[in-house]
Amino acid sequence: MDNDPGLPRIDRDRHGRGMRQSLASQISRGGRRLSSFEQIVSGTCDFLKNAWPDELADLKWEVADAPTISSETKGVRRWGVRRDQMKIIIYRLPIERLGHHKRTDALHERMHIEEFVFAAVGHLIGKEPWELAPDRY
Fold it and tell me: Region labeled Disordered — which residues (predicted)?
């Protein structure tokens, strides 16, 4: 049923929650919707690319579940770097499950993930993480 042109437009569905957004408006990469973890990694990389446009113009990133572990591996890596591809790899499971005891809210979760993105990008371009955003630390 269409609204009468003289009446105000109704912007709510029958449950009062508002209309759903289109899937096209969702953040996506490669034709698929990003998880919240990937959205944080993407947003942090975008921030760093804007802060360091000359050094990070070609920065690429990837989220993988976990690094490959061999019998010689000591510890579990949270990130990796491929300098020849100007790419960082962020390992989701070790970041989400290891090495942090108390994250009380979404802000702390975001900061925890960003810490490893800053470390990986810093290693990629030969800078310390606090050099990438001096006002942040």
Answer: 1-20
Percent over 90 (pLDDT), the chain: 53
User: What CATH number matches the domain at 34-66+76-132, 3.40.50, 3.30.70, 3.10.20, 3.30.2010?
Assistant: 3.30.2010
As given in the structure block, the two tokens for residue 122 are: 């810093």
Q: What three-state secondary structure class fits 115?
A: helix
Q: What is the pLDDT of residues 15-59, one digit of tens each?
A: 555 545 444 444 455 556 668 999 999 999 999 999 999 999 999
Give the whole-angstrom CA distance, residue 110 versus residue 92: 13
Reading the block at residue 110, the tokens are 């975001």
CA nearest neighbour of 123 among 77, 88, 78, 84: 88
Alpha-carbon gap, residue 95 to 69, rounded angstroms: 15
The pLDDT value given to residue 16:
55
Has this prediction a pTM greater than 0.90? no
